[in-house]
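2 proteins. here.
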Amino acid sequence: MLRPPSLLLLLTRCSAARRFLSASRQGQGQGQGRAVGSVLKTPKGTRDHPPAQVALRERLLGTVVACFKRHGAAAIDTPVLELRETLMGKYGDNAKLVYELQDQGGELLALRYDLTVPFARYLAMNKITNIKRYHVAKVYRRDNPATTRGRYREFYQCDFDIAGQFDPMLPDAECLKIVHEILSDLQLGDFLIKVNDRRILNGVLAICGIPESKFITTCSTIDKLDKVPWEEVKNEMVGGKGLSPEAADCIGEYVQLHGGLDLIEQLLQDPKLSQNKLAKEGLGDMKLLFEYLTLFGITGKISFDLSLARGLDYYTGVIFEAVLLQQENDHVEDLVGIGSVAGGGRYDGLVGMFDPKGRKVPCVGVSIGIERIFSILEQRVKASGEKVRTTETQVLVATPQKRLLSARLKLISELWDAGIKAEMLYKKDPTLLKQLQYCESMGIPLAAIIGEQELSDGVVKLRDVATREEVDIPREGLPDEIRRRLEP
């Protein structure tokens, strides 16, 4: 038989309950106080995008995606979350920038750092050995933001990749052609696409006596040569990475070289580098790549640059990076400060890291630096005073007299049903002036005006907002007339 609870136990429980309620109320009060007193803002390195920015971004993405589709790519999507173990060990010194999440019920997760590693995981998981894909999505990096240079913690990447076993350098050349097309289509000004090969770079390190265990960290240091002078890079190699001054000088003899086919031929004859098997393979492929790029007619924008290292662990062959060149008398701030606007390379071993049997799927791809390009376009729009349209409305349905709301609603419904992008003001009896002013402020090109006379005659007065010309159109022919006028 159950014994009734003792008085002491009841008092203890009541006391505990009172303490819990008191703490809860205090916590609620403090939470409300913080909410009232705190400044509303987005997290560091992120930002909201108002309609004008979103419209500009969509215009930019439209150009990029159109190029990807022109080259026969299909779109995929992957989760923004990945298992932590999927991402770790793929990014070299940048692994510290991966956003790791707290244990969410048995799985250690992280936010995706890029779109390449999730793509490799996708291929291995689904046993795909041949695909040409593009992917546009947000990625996350725990970086120090530099918003004026288009560097954020949350940002879009636009990737194009070719996976599969193909003849050497054909997919690689197409990736470089895509970069050239996109940067030309966007009219960002003069640009240069730097190319190198990790096999050539590793060959340089080998003949300079660098142990293989230090290849990746040394490459990360070499990769800074586009931002700081050689002396600073050398000091980091010697002081930070433990290389001898002689080894650093040996590296410096090579990584400060850049050119074209002539440089490739020169290095193929180099007495030391030509004896390294990996470097010789890389130089042979680089020569073939330049032959294909010559056929594409784009070698004028390509530079074989031995300082290009791209500090990610997974690159195995050709690597490339596109940079904008500074222009004089340009309204945009110093373009050199923007940094690279596209980059990529070959990563033949990444898929095999996820496959249980280690089966490799050769891959090459490019990532377009949308945020940095967007920063440039945004600055140009501001400098030019261009007003960016935030909607695609083709026509505003307007009335010149009162008590015609029902006529407006019937007409706009007919236009919507016909696939016309139409708006009306949410007032029963707006003045015609207010309606036309709305057209001008929103950039709406046409106004469909229906008054008592138009209702009687079975027509609609179609007004060109810019020229103010008006013409009566039979009501049933209005959708076709709107389309005809707004054809590109």
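next one coming up
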Amino acid sequence: MLLGGADGIVVFNYWEPTHYLSHGYGLQTWEYSPVYAIRSWAYVGLHAVLSRVFSEVPNLSKLYEFYGLRCLFAASCAFCETKLYAAVSININRRVGILYLITTIASAGMFHAATAFLPSTFAMYMTMLGMTAFIDRRRGFRTAEGVFWFALGGLLGWPFSMAMCIPHIAEELFMAAVSWGALPTVYRLVKGGIASLVLLVGIVGIDYYAYQKLEIVPLNIVLYNVFSGPGKGPNIYGTEPWWFYLANLTLNFNLLLPLALASAPCVILYYFVCRSAFAPGFTPRMISISAPFYLWFAIFTAQPHKEERFMYVAYPALCLNAAMAYHVILTIWGSVSNRLTSGKSQDLMNWIVLALPLTVAALGSLSRVLAVVSAYSAPMEVYSALLPNATGNLCLAKEWYRYPSSYFLPNGVRAKFLKSAFNGLLPGEFPESKGWTRPGTWMVPQGMNDENIGDPLKYVTLDNCDYLIESYFNRDPQPEEDYHVDTDRWEEVRCEDFLDTSKTPTLGRMLWVPKWIPSFRNWGRYCLLRRKS
């Protein structure tokens, strides 16, 4: 809810189409062109329905729809986390369940992912429910349910997330082969597969209605990202070194990442130390449960194009792995402390070993969260200064990718783009419509392509602007792309501090420090300007 710093991918691919369905206008990316159709209107439509529910509350602006949806995201994530916690506590180990819950609550990564309007976040929710179904065997095997949840996350959200299901299915097939027989397991898998196919038919039906032609969007996503060929596909948007996710996950989970990576080795080593059997509180299932995180981490580390949001699906698995590794460490420490100390000194040492690492991890994550909120929340604050009765064009230059969505604009204001140093393809506009029909879902927009080639028709001139969003930093010489407007014709409506990343040391960008230390974090100004009458 508090997280600032709008992400262009989230806004233009999901918030804007949702706004279009709800209010009849918005910005359109090439992915929604019927020519390419790699975004599902079923996924966006679900959120548009929820957005309309909030819009029916009297005397509330569109901004409440935005925050209302984010509240629902937070509540959905908390519900799924609670279900997984209960399954782990009852079926695996109670201490592992408690540690898992603590790590999810106290990690910056989960704070960022929980309320993001992204298919990978939706897939993360479904992954937690799928893991819950496979882990929880109190009332028999729930294989079909687990397959369905993973399919829902993959087909309605992000297709690649279904890879997280592979280790769970492999475990059941292995146990079926060596223990309880293959036929019941195959039956449950087929049952889950049939339910998934029914779900796919429903999604394809909704997209057929929207695009006015048959499109299997999950298949389109896979074909675009894996089989696009040279000059297309995700790599044209940038590539990262192999260690990118190690660095990023360390930033968002700090001590929890090495624990997660050490989970399976810790459990296996403990097994061999015990030589014959697992000690009380351990189960061989811990090894198979730790596998999804390793699989996901390996798959996406191997991809040249890397983004933080790609890891969201595996965040719950990372926290669960870290909890199992820490459980092993605490168990070993318990045996050691019994031999070294006793009485109150033993209780004190046990509490230090338990609480100190978790406290350090939680404080590191809190510092990271505060760093992001304090550094990058200016856009959401500045846009809120627009008066409800404002009209005209609000123009974006180099700050186009921090646009927080049309939910922040009054009904009489439209977003436009000014030319900046960016030469790629910017979003166009859905054709405005009233009533219940939305022809923009099936009309082919002009100037779209899947090669990130810029379209000059997407821009307007400064003369067409009534409002301007711009950031200014103390640099010498001043960047040519800054729009320095005539103060006789323009006035400041609101300006907020915004972190100058080019002049702030790495540690200052990563973690929070008090703003009154000027040498550590450097600031610019993020402004909303208005043309004078």
